[in-house]
Amino acid sequence: MIGLISATSAGAAARDRLAAAWPERTRVYEGPVGDAVRAAFAECEQLVCFLATGAVVRLVAPLLGDKASDPGVVCVDEGGRFAVSLVGGHGGGANELAYEVGELLGAEPVVTTATDAVGMPGLDMLGFPVEGDVAGVSRALLDGEPVALEAEVSWPLPPLRVTAEGTYSIRVTDRAARPADREVLLRPPSLVVGVGASRGAPVDEVLELVEGALRDAGLSARSVAELATVDAKAQEPGIVEAAERLGVPLVTYSAEELAAVDVPNPSDAPLAAVGTPSVAEAAALVRGGELLVPKRKSAAAVAMATCAVVRRPARGRLAVVGLGPGARDLLTPRAKAELRRASVLVGLDQYVDQIRDLLRPGTRVLESGLGAEEERARTAVAEARKGQAVALIGSGDAGVYAMASPALAEASDDIDVIGVPGVTAALAAAAVLGAPLGHDHVSISLSDLHTPWEVIERRVRAAAEADIVVTFYNPRSRGRDWQLPKALAILAGHREPTTPVGVVRNASRPDESSRLTTLADLDPATVDMMTVVTVGNTATRRIAGRMVTPRGYRWQAAPNSGSAAGQEGAE
Ligand code: SAH
Fold first, then answer.
1. Which residue of 142, 179, 301, 404 has the smallest Cβ count within 10 Å?
2. 109 lines ligand 1 (CB under 6 A)
3. 57 and 168 belong to one structural domain
4. Ligand 1 within 6 A of 425 CB?
């Protein structure tokens, strides 16, 4: 819960905007400010105070305990210009919250924690449990001192500015080691514990068995990703509670699925009880991996539980990220976050240039020139298969005439794929032109590099006959100059010469230009590869210099009637 505290009416107005935007996440504290801050500090994970930083410092100072448990505190000034992360930047999530509040109120987030300030992830913000000298190693990273990365388990980490050797080190391990001096241990969620239990098995017996197995094998409980068992045991209290106490999810599989897993120690008892010769080993191994602890039984006189431990294969992470048409503010926040999450970036050199300043120090950039699409797709997938966090970028939306399809055609289900949509050139151009896409529309690429012209022509013809608004991508290059006139001629066979045509070059880029003309008047020589051309349908009109395609004929005929047609079209 986020506690909200304000003193003045301006503060209260901003506070109410937050409360309205996040009704589930926030609680308003009224009354004298001192009491409100103290109550919220005791009851909430985070506070947003619409008060001067000085006032908040004085109020929270006596309440502070330690940074692992204190709430994160963000201050917003009277004018709503700044959202200051004051206390609990990482552990309390105040840095993150300052960004969120800033976004919502249009305030500048102010973050002074060193790692965030220079664009490096805090070691305690990587999403993994950490142990050891977090402050020392973070400082070394910041100061550019050599920090070695030892990955005993390869896992898709965000970029860290690391070297092969150093006085400081970061070790990625699921082993139960203690951190050395000047060392941080990162615990990847690499272990799966399979468990089986007879009805009524006590939670303590299950837990002791699991903890004993991990201890004897020298493994860290903090790397356990999940407990796994058979569907029939999904409600077994001893197993459910053991997962809860370990703080991990319980996943279950059907008996058939488990019966199909090849295990070293099958037995008859579970086969009779739940229909699979192995529960613990099979549930741990069902998604593949290395069996570190074969089935063992609990130590009770009549053993009621079994467990087995598997190290699952690292799954790489491939984010396919659309950068939008060019302007930085048309790059979505999610795309930005994925660019900073990746330790390997793959893309066309000119697109890499567009976002290079956003990358975290230590990001490995694999850029290549025009035409190397297949190679880029293969590289991105190969890096993800090695267990890396990879971002494959494209302009506009990366799935539209771009890298997503060749990459996913290469990929198998051994990596995670995250798609981040982007604003396409067609949408950016439409916004410049007016509302040309108000009714059904298609995009057609006129590049016959990978598609035979007959196919392109058939599609243009179909769009012409179906009276669909068409946006032409890749409309014309030095070597390809007859395709656009040909395509326009096909459309002209079904549309008036006066049909509006919008030409937008470099939409949203500094040298953006646009022209609204007609099918009869368009001069193809003014079109190049930085351009999209949008041709209206038979209902598209030029209105006050803008290109407008009505949402439907009935809609147009009865704009104020409140008729069924009007409602049907309502958003
Ligand atoms: N994935 C991109 C399209 C890549 S194909 C998208 O979703 O938009 C390349 C073609 O897109 C160019 O030849 C041009 O026709 C068009 N294009 C890309 N960016 C553009 C922009 N900012 N303005 C106008 N056209 C653009």
1. 301
2. no
3. no
4. yes
